[in-house]
Amino acid sequence: MKQPDAKDQEILAILSKEARIPLKALAARVGLSRSAASERVAQLERAGVIRGYRADIGQMDRDVIRAFLLVTLARTPSMSILDKLAGYAEVRRVSSISGQLDLVVEVEVPSIDRLNNLRDNIANGPAVQDLTTLIVLRRDIDREQ
């Protein structure tokens, strides 16, 4: 696929915030016909730029445990681990980084037991060489909201 152009970038920006937006509304917002917008979305999906759609559930109560999983992969790149991570609702953010580590995975779970289960499921995959867990004690500065 060609590099995403300005319209593709606009579509991606909208879909990243509103994955369930009706195609008709998406097309109107980017100034395309419904069929043109549909074709662009289909091309982005086929090219792997759009890997899936998900519901991003906000924090429902205060008893949420946040943690960072520091992952070293057996081999890079490893798209299979990204696909696996995307399947967990508790995974909030995955960042590929430079240096000794390969991925920083930010998770939010309701309990330590769920954190342990999630951690074990990820660590036992063949793509993962090592995994370290850091539990967030508090957020001193949070500009995400």
Any overview of this molecule?
It comes from Mesorhizobium atlanticum. Pfam families: AsnC_trans_reg, HTH_24. This is Lrp/AsnC family transcriptional regulator. Residues 4-57 form the HTH asnC-type domain. GO terms for molecular function: sequence-specific DNA binding. With 145 residues, this protein is α+β, with helices and mostly antiparallel strands. It has 2 domains: 6-46, Arc Repressor Mutant, subunit A; 65-135, Alpha-Beta Plaits (2-Layer Sandwich), CATH 3.30.70.920. 37% of the residues lie in helices and 21% in strands. It has 5 helices and 4 strands. A 4-stranded antiparallel sheet has the order 2-3-1-4, with helices on one face. β2 (91-96) and β3 (103-109) form a beta hairpin. The radius of gyration is 18 Å and the shape is globular. The protein starts with 5 loop residues before the first helix and ends in a 10-residue tail after the last strand.
Key phrases:
145 residues, alpha+beta, Arc Repressor Mutant, subunit A, Alpha-Beta Plaits, 2 domains, 4-stranded antiparallel β-sheet
What can be said about this structure in brief?
The protein is built from 5 helices and 4 strands.
From the alpha-carbon coordinates, what is the Rg to the nearest angstrom? 18 Å
Number of helices: 5
> Number of DSSP strands?
4
Task: Report strand order across the widest sheet.
Answer: 2-3-1-4
> What's the rounded overall pLDDT mean?
87
Proportion in β-strands: 15-25%
CATH class of the largest domain: Alpha Beta
Characterize the largest beta sheet: strand count, sense, and whether it forms a barrel.
4 strands, antiparallel
The percent range for helix content is: 25-40%
